[in-house]
Amino acid sequence: MSTASQAALSVVVAGLMRGERQPIQVRPQAMLEARDLPKCDISDFLQERIDSALSAELIQRSKQEGVPPDQVSAILWCKHIQGKSRLQ
């Protein structure tokens, strides 16, 4: 993040804390979520691969822990790649 964008972010946060600004209640049309974007063959392929990998990991972890898959605890970790933190 550049110094200018950090400064702009700190101004927004300070305004929110002082009550001068209000958090966005409704997402603007320009800020579409992934589910709002049109689907294509590659997005379907990627989603299927992600779903199957997550299912396989869940089954593997349930076998390791000796519990049914619906009782496996969810784990969210942050991986640091090339100077950027990414949630996984």
Compact summary:
The protein has 88 residues and is mainly alpha-helical.
Question: Ends: how far apart?
Answer: 21 Å
The total count of strands amounts to: 2
User: In sequence order, what are the helices and strands, one letter per element?
Assistant: HHEE
Portion in beta strands: 5-15%
Poorly predicted segments:
none
Taking all Cα atoms into account, the compactness measure Rg is 20 Å
Average pLDDT confidence is: 78
How many individual helices? Answer: 2
* Helix percent band: 40-55%
Q: What is the structural class?
A: mainly alpha
* Quaternary form: single chain
Structure write-up:
The chain has a two-stranded antiparallel ribbon. It is built from two helices and two strands; from the N terminus they run H-H-E-E. It is elongated. With 88 residues, the protein is mainly alpha-helical. Strand 1 and strand 2 form a beta hairpin. It has a domain at 33-88.
